[in-house]
């Protein structure tokens, strides 16, 4: 029996990881976020209740499991405390530990994010301006602040002096942007935030290692998706952390040396928030219809998402880089009603056919999609979906099965989880 399962986005994020993580969480002892920050948002529907989570793992709604925010996550303490309070107000029992090695987003990181984005022009990644890139830069500069530092006032003050001075100078001298907040103001605020979070801060790598040694079921939850990975994605239009499954050991502090089930989340079409090449993007008149039907607005920012047809060049890359063992496909219900559905099987770049993702944004800007046309399926009512769920895979409309089987053959990875709606119950497992 596989004890380790990783849920990762196989596209641009927004694939429905919240629901699928929640689905797997019922059998987990630990649910772990291992990268990203509050620039990601995961939506979970339980009955008529909707939960929008940004830092806390989606499995928090199962109180029997321990939710862990690993060291690979960058944390805005204000956002985390607000999320904890909102869940408590709704009656959710918070069973959470946060790594003392998590780097802390400071007020100047958010200011730097805004200033840098303004100066990056056409190469700006469409940042959420939550301070993610600057806090990751400070981590690499080796003067970042970690959550554990907030619990030791003298050491925190020593580290903050270096980080504060560097970022204030960067803003005011390099970017020409004033930063009015004082050192003492930030120091006192973050000491208070550390005290409020102290009950949750722990050596989570030790907790996870003990669980791993004792054969516990561990579920890892990524944020964003493959094409936003800092190394493997469409750079520079990426996030500032590694989103792929191979990052679980780095982002948790534990070397996992046994087989991991790696589930890649795939939306039945394509969506993304942000700028940069999107080869299968629909013209706005067609995009608007699909966007409204699918509710394609960012969970974190509310920005309208760009949408397009499914891109199998991207998915082949996701299978290879993540070592995907399974695909979970979501939002098939949204494609209902289309007479014909296009699927991109390759790109044409400068007259050449490419079936694998190029590394160069320069090439991607010139890429033209090569489509296979598949017959669509009729609209499905709530009762129709309920009957299909009860009947399992064989009860799916024939054209949905043909769509799924075409994808499986093209990317050489089995589709084992099929989602026909946002609720837990609207799921088929093959």
Instruction: For the largest sheet, list the strands in their spatial order.
Output: 7-6-5-2-8-1-9-13-17-18
Our Rg estimate from Cα atoms comes to 22 Å
Q: In CATH's first tier, which class of the largest domain applies? A: Alpha Beta
Sum up the overall morphology in one term.
globular
Question: Average pLDDT, to the nearest integer?
Answer: 93
Instruction: Determine the CATH superfamily of the largest domain.
Output: Adenylosuccinate Synthetase, subunit A, domain 3
Q: Which sheet architecture does the biggest sheet show?
A: 10 strands, mixed
Span from first to last CA? 17 Å
Strand content: 15-25%
Would you tell me the structural class of the helices and strands? alpha/beta
Instruction: Give the tally of β-strands.
Output: 18
Give start-end ranges of low-pLDDT stretches: none
The CATH architecture classification of the largest domain is Alpha-Beta Complex
User: What is the helix tally?
Assistant: 13
How many discrete structural domains?
3
Task: Provide the CATH topology of the largest domain.
Answer: Adenylosuccinate Synthetase, Chain A, domain 3
Helical content band = 25-40%
Overall description:
- This protein is α/β, with parallel strands linked by helices.
- It has three domains: 4-99 and 201-263, Adenylosuccinate Synthetase, subunit A, domain 1 (Adenylosuccinate Synthetase, Chain A, domain 1, 3-Layer(aba) Sandwich), CATH 3.40.440.10; 107-197, Adenylosuccinate Synthetase, subunit A, domain 2, CATH 1.10.300.10; 265-429, Adenylosuccinate Synthetase, subunit A, domain 3 (Adenylosuccinate Synthetase, Chain A, domain 3, Alpha-Beta Complex), CATH 3.90.170.
- The protein is 35% helix and 20% strand.
- The chain contains 13 helices and 18 strands.
- The protein has helices spanning 17-25, 77-89, 107-119, 132-141, 153-174, 183-197, 204-213, 248-252, 284-294, 312-322, 361-366, 382-391, 398-411; strands at 4-9, 30-33, 42-46, 49-53, 66-69, 96-99, 201-202, 218-221, 260-267, 270-272, 306-308, 310-311, 326-330, 340-349, 352-354, 368-375, 415-419, 427-429.
- The strands form four sheets. A ten-stranded mixed sheet has the order 7-6-5-2-8-1-9-13-17-18, with helices on both faces. Strands 12, 14, 15 and 16 form a four-stranded mixed sheet that branches.
- A hairpin with a 2-residue loop joins strand 3 (42-46) and strand 4 (49-53).
- Helix 3 (107-119) packs across helix 4 and helix 3 runs parallel beside helix 5 (153-174).
- The longest helix is centred in the middle third of the chain and has 22 residues, at 153-174.
- It is globular, with a radius of gyration of 22 Å.
């Amino acid at each position: 029996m596989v004890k380790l399962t990783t849920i990762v986005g196989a596209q641009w994020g927004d694939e429905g990881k919240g629901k699928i993580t929640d689905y797997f969480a019922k059998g987990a002892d630990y649910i772990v976020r291992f990268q990203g920050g509050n620039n990601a948002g995961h939506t979970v529907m339980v009955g008529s209740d909707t939960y929008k989570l940004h830092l806390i793992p989606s499995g928090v709604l199962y109180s029997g499991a321990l939710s862990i925010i690993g060291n690979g996550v960058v944390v805005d303490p204000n956002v985390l405390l607000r999320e904890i309070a909102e869940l408590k107000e709704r009656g959710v029992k918070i069973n959470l530990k946060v790594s003392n090695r998590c780097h802390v987003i400071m007020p100047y990181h958010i200011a730097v994010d805004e200033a840098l984005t303004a100066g990056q022009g056409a190469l700006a990644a469409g940042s959420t301006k939550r301070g993610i890139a600057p806090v990751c830069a400070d981590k690499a500069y080796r003067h970042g602040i970690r959550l554990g530092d907030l619990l030791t006032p003298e050491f925190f003050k020593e580290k903050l002096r270096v980080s504060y001075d560097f970022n204030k100078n960067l803003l005011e001298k390099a970017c020409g942007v004033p930063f009015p907040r004082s050192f003492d103001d930030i120091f006192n605020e973050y000491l208070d935030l550390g005290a409020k979070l102290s009950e949750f801060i722990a050596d989570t790598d030790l907790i996870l290692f003990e669980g791993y040694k004792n054969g516990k079921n561990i579920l890892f939850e990524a944020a964003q998706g493959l094409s936003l990975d800092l190394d493997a994605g469409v750079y520079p239009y990426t996030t500032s952390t590694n989103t792929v499954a191979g990052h679980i050991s780095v982002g948790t502090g534990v070397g996992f040396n046994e087989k991991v089930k790696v589930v890649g989340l795939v939306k039945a079409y394509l969506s993304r928030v942000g700028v940069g090449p999107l080869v299968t993007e629909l013209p706005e008149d067609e995009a608007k219809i699909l966007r409204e039907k699918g509710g394609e607005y960012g969970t974190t920012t509310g920005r309208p998402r760009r949408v397009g047809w499914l891109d199998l060049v991207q998915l082949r890359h996701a299978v290879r880089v993540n070592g995907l063992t399974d695909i979970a496909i979501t939002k098939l219900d949204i494609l209902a009603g289309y007479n014909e559905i296009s699927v991109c099987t390759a790109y044409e770049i400068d007259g050449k056919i490419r079936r694998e993702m190029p590394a160069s944004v320069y090439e991607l800007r010139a890429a033209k999609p090569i489509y296979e046309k598949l017959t669509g399926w009729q609209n499905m009512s709530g009762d129709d979906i309920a009957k299909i769920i009860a009947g399992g895979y064989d009860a799916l409309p024939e054209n949905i099965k043909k769509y799924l089987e075409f994808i499986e053959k093209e990317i050489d990875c089995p589709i084992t989880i099929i989602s026909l709606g946002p609720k837990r119950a609207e799921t088929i497992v093959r």
